Amino acid sequence: MTQYWDKMWDERFELPGYYYGTEPNDFLRENSKVFKPKGKILCLAEGEGRNAVFLAGQGFDVTAVDGSQAGMVKMRELAQERKVRVAEVVSDLADFDFGTDRWDGIVAIWCHLPKELLTRVLRNASKSLTLGGSILIEAYTPKQLEYKTGGPHSVDLLNQLHEFQRDLKGLKQIHGIELERDIYEGKGHTGRSAVVQFIARREQ
């Protein structure tokens, strides 16, 4: 299988400090109660671990997957500092085995992938949720190219609400919106941004 992983991420995460900061994404922090208490949560494309570490601090059993070994090293350091534990998997999402009926929650914050791969990842993610499990997503929309305050520079890597609704159609939508908001996450995301937010739950 052709891998998508780009070594650029290792180069970025090997730099001193945390490129996207150490605090969780706002949308995730405000909606973490959508997940079953103490449930098993999978964080996709987790980078340096800020979201996974936050969820572990909320009492969840968290696994983080990312293609960057350097990112996982940073996550381990942050977890130790915050006195929590996060399981780590270094893997290209093109090759990651989600399993079936495995996760009570899945988090995809800024998980930008080529369209075909993203569809496959989301459909596998949907199948891997337990009954009552939820997926939470925030991503940049094509309008973000006008702001240039973070995110991919290619429209093929940017997302719209209807794409998540299509790829996760077997789940019940709890929240779905495209909006503009201010985002400040380290030096990687800095200012007014165009995003899509989506939460859905497996109910059958």
Could you characterize what this model shows?
The structure is a single chain. This protein has 204 residues and is an alpha/beta fold. Helix content is 29%, strand content 30%. It has helices at residues 8-13, 26-31, 50-57, 69-82, 115-128, 144-147, 161-167, and strands spanning 40-44, 61-66, 87-90, 103-109, 129-140, 172-185, 189-201. Strands 3-2-1-4-5-7-6 form a seven-stranded mixed β-sheet, sandwiched between helices. Strand 2 (61-66), helix 4 (69-82) and strand 3 (87-90) form a beta-alpha-beta unit. Helix 3 packs parallel to helix 4 (69-82). The longest helix has 14 residues, at 69-82. It is globular.
Give the helices and strands, then pairings.
Blueprint lengths: L7 H6 L12 H6 L8 E5 L5 H8 L3 E6 L2 H14 L4 E4 L12 E7 L5 H14 E12 L3 H4 L13 H7 L4 E14 L3 E13 L3
Parallel strand pairs: 1-2, 1-4, 2-3, 4-5
Antiparallel strand pairs: 5-7, 6-7
